[in-house]
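Let us work through a complete example step by step.
Step 1: write down the sequence.
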Amino acid sequence: FCGLLGAGELVDDPRFATNQVRVKNRDELRPLIQSYLEKRTAQEWEKICLEAGVPVAHVRKTSDVITDEQILARDMIKKVRLPGGEEIGTWGVPVKVDGVSFTRPLAIPAMDQHRAEILSELGLGGGKDG
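Step 2: predict the structure and record it as tokens.
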């Protein structure tokens, strides 16, 4: 890990020589590691770690995920129309099966749109006032 960070001097530091002393001295170790991590972007660290065989992925914001080439290639963002006519993106079906086409997501219902039907099914009457 220290080699990937470019922090070779930490390897020989007795404060961090074993897991037990690293835990004991973690308040000193964390800012040191942070100072190295701040030198690169999350994407750069992800690439460095993957090239070294370390399984890793940086935490992404929703805005990053919805523009990710893999998400778009897998058709994971589906458009739905709100009752007022506005169209928004929502998540598609994550499981893909060759030869199977999944339907578009249903429209999002308006507030109280199905109230009468739900109350009727529950035996509670179907009027707007209950």
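Step 3: interpret the result. Residues 2-51 form one domain.
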